[in-house]
Predict the 3D structure of the following.
Amino acid sequence: MLDQKQHIKLPEGSIEKNTTTLNLGPTHPATHGVFQNILEIDGERVVSAVSTVGYIHRAFEKIAERRPYYQVTPLTDRLNYCSAPINNMGWIMTVEKLLGLEMPKRVDYLRVIIMELARIADHLICSAVMGVDTGALTGFVYLMTYRELIYEIYEEICGSRLTTNIGRIGGFERNFTPAAFEKIERFLKEYPAALTEFETLLTRNRIFMERTQGVGAISAERAMSYGFTGPNLRAAGVDYDVRIANPYCSYQDFDFSIPVGTTGDCYDRYQVRNAEMWESISIIRQAMEKLKGLPDDVYHADVPAYYLPEKKDVYTKMEALIYHFKIVMGETEILPGEVYHSVEGANGELGFYLISDGGRSPYRLHFRRPCFIYYQAYPELIKGSMLSDAIVCMSSLNLIAGELDA
Amino acid sequence: MSLTNERIQQRLTEKFGDVLTGFEEPFGMLTFTAQKDYNLKVMQFLFDDEELRFRFLTDITAVHYPERKGEELCVVYHLHNFVDNVRLRLKVYTPVASPKVFTATSLYESANWMERETYDFFGVDFVGHPNLIRILNVDEMTYFPMRKEFPLEDPMRTDKDDEMFGRGGHF
């Protein structure tokens, strides 16, 4: 199993194992989530790894089979909790696709804004944590300030910060307030400077480059075979992005590029994520510009049979009360059918495979969780590398335990 | 988009004939059913063929239809051709009494965990899988929880009725 360059040397005839078994996780502080890997290490070198997953499995797919459609959204929050709005929107758009609902442009643009903010929030955590794992805490502190600004925007729009449950089938629960737009403007104004500073700290930092270049590299063919999507696949040089390949939510109206890497190593993943943050900032700016030309009171489609009416209308208007009752009691007509819809989540293609039998809740709902699929490449990525590289490699993959275990 | 659904269907029917049935296009995605011994052959053909090039496995999952006697479990594959940007959905039905289908791990590395997950929740036995053990549930579990015979709540409860879920009493 081991070559001659083995580090642990045992005396002739020893019955001891010539590798050390190291249990990394499930609650190791450097794994950023409940990930367990049983490593066979020879000195500092990883010989093999066995991943164990499922520590926070909560059976969302089963629970979804007993929940009305509008109550599935909070479950999706808890998948990739670093970018919950993307999951919410992905699920809502899946149902809208099944129902054949068309959204007004303004709803699409508001959704684009919120999804791109979520993408920035997710990427900045991942890039900053890579810095932390290579020994540079400073950048992390800089960027976390700005995640706070994003969370304040969420709070202004939907009232919560982490598990957002943002949006409803048919639009948003309420319009964006002027304060929300002010906060977005403030973020757009302040964040680029911070991101530039962060990049100045890390991108050409010799220590950071030594720690990440050539570490955890994967070729484009292997990455595709392992089902990589998102920034990890693009770092390997495949320009696949759901926003471009199958545009949803009016992404075709925006002008942006897909950053790609070449080697697929940790450094390229970091670079791709940073470049994507710049693209996201540009998309949000474009969306803010486009919103100026649209009526500012449209925040949902005119589909009373599916859109939960505002609470104050429910208490004062007969029609709203009737529709509210019908939606909550599952009296709305949902046609049988099967639909697959995917969005570009922050760490890859987040897909929803929904089968409806005409009942009140999905007959079957399957989440295509990107990091569940690409995490199986981890033992191959770290084989032969140092133990400290294995840690950096894990944080560069942007694994989110909640999404992995569903 | 140069590769159309009609063209894919035509190529597949030329190659496999009656093995593939039930061609339809819900929401624009070509969907068809293969006889259960042919799932790997069909996927291999879709992978190797220079025109079709379905070389990315998006997803594997299963669905349980208790009322379809003799073909209760449906294994669903979502494949993607990156070059022409076309997706398709392949279904294989298998009896719940001996749910055996061939593994796709020889074609796609990613199939490994997806098939383990499908086994874990539905008990589909992927023949030839290198390591078909539970993945998300505990190893001691003796049943397959996503099958429809396991209701989410206590079935003896009388205060809650599935009538409310539009399914007439029970499912």
Remarks:
- Chain B touches chain A through 40 residues (CB under 8 Å).
- Chain B has one domain: 5-152.
- The domain at 5-152 of chain B is CATH 3.30.460.80 (Beta Polymerase; domain 2).
